Amino acid sequence: MSWEAELEELRRRQQLARELGGAERVKRHKDGGKLTVRERIDALLDPGSFREVGSIAGKASYDEAGNITAFTPAQLVMGRGTLDGKPVVVAGDDFTVRGGSAEGGLRDKLVRAEMMARDLRMPIVRLCDGTGGGGSVRALEVDGYAKCPALYGWGLAIENLSQVPVVGLALGSTAGFGAARVATSHYSVMVKDTSQMFIAGPPVVNRLGPQYEKNELGGSEIHTRNGTVDDEVDSEATAFLRTRRFLSYLPRSVHELPARIDTGDDPQRKVEWLIDAIPRDERQVYKMRQIVEAVVDQGTFFEMGRRWGRPVMTGFARFGGWPVALLASDPYHYGGAWTADAARKIRRFVDLAQTFHLPVVHLVDVPGFMVGLDAEQKGTMRYGAEAIAAIIGSTVPWCAVIVRKCFGIGGGAHANNSRYSTRYAWPSANWGSMPIAGGLEASYRSEIAGAADPAAKLAEIEQRLDRVCSPFRTAEAYNFDEIIDPRDTRRLLCEFVSLCAGTIAAGPPSFGYRP
């Protein structure tokens, strides 16, 4: 006896599931400029690699003879596939099915997706659109009672942050649980204009008073500038490309090491213009991103979080094919001083490097923590202390290149000096407990006041101290490894990263990743 009838029933149900929320809802979804969940999965993964799990989960209706008359698929499509040949788990919300709310087995599929990622040691990509397992007022009438809130499966989501790479893409209006899934990731992206994130959306918030449109309340303009989301892109296709690039620098899980690739860029390549990169006038800024692009393997710098915490740049790069976590100061924003947001950004990025065994390269131009009333009101010292704790707690190798300023507590955290850290300085480097200009008049007040020409005395003292603060004087005391020719920076960083290759062991990080 054949089982062909049952297989035909399976194929019929799978076809019903592929129709998502129905032609009308799918059209409305696509008219809003968005791909369907299955189109998103196809666009993200390598062609033909998707293997769906739970393909016929959902809610069915039957006639008296037991024949299926209607079928509503679960609001989540999930399974595994490959990205550039590497296995990943993908879990995508289907907004065409009741706005992606929590009915029809969605929560169980969410938990299984996170479990698959953890136990099979695969990265997970969350395609978020809707409440993503959150509540629905409609469910009150369907269930007949109100459920006490509980974060089912959330322990798995938190655990995965210290086990496998996690990407959260906000591809539509995400609220509550869905928004939290985006934020609880190593790398998150929003699509400009078509995606939003809310604790609660306009229908709830507008009952409280002021009226907001979706993008006014939770658009990418807000969340990519407050640190909730890392990056903003102009299309879903770009979000998928950035996901591929992000994952290309990381291992499959903490139980492996990041892979080296052949970038074709000579580690001995000199960058001649770096000798003129730093202006002699300390008040004149320069473009650190150009320096970064010049010293890394060509085309490999992948910046994250560019729109927030802007005194510091964070991203991945390669040196001699080896991946690294790269920090760099941006003097265009507060002269590179660590603000509260910059410190938050650093702490999270150092956690990421520690979790996935990436050595850290830091191009330093830090005048210290940001000062002033606003800095105090924003708790800069608290967030700065968190960043320093992450740096000191890290066990991956560090190499700092001081290109200009290195002052105060923020400057002192340029590397993990509780362990051996490689430290170079350019001839343009200048350091100390505070800049001369910040403490000169206080320290020499009586001498300046008693002079016949106070302004001339001030200039004389400043010139005298400038000579003492020469990096060559510091080198005499062996306070760092070496003053280097800026043109040799790439070669020395490639050597550093190559040496690190044999010193980092795979395995769980020494502390868990904190979102």
Structural class: alpha/beta
Shape: elongated
Q: What would CATH call the class of the largest domain?
A: Alpha Beta
* Rounded Rg: 27 Å
Number of alpha- plus pi-helical segments: 21
Average residue pLDDT = 89
Q: What's the count of strands? A: 19
Report what the structure shows.
It is a single chain. The chain has 21 helices and 19 strands. It has 2 domains: 4-248, 2-enoyl-CoA Hydratase, Chain A, domain 1 (Alpha-Beta Complex); 272-434 and 471-500, 2-enoyl-CoA Hydratase, Chain A, domain 1 (Alpha-Beta Complex). Helix 13 packs parallel to helix 15 (380-393) and helix 17 packs across helix 19. The protein has helices at 4-18, 23-31, 37-44, 106-119, 137-143, 154-160, 177-183, 202-205, 214-218, 220-223, 236-248, 288-295, 340-355, 373-377, 380-393, 408-412, 436-443, 445-449, 454-468, 471-476, 489-500, and strands at 51-53, 58-62, 68-73, 76-83, 86-93, 124-128, 166-170, 173-175, 187-191, 196-198, 231-233, 302-304, 312-319, 322-329, 360-366, 398-407, 422-425, 430-432, 482-483. The mean pLDDT is 89. Strands 12, 13, 14, 15, 16, 17, 18 and 19 form an 8-stranded mixed sheet that branches. A 7-stranded mixed sheet has the order 1-4-5-6-7-9-11, sandwiched between helices. Strands 2-3 form a two-stranded antiparallel sheet. It is elongated and about 105 Å long. With 515 residues, it is of the alpha/beta class.
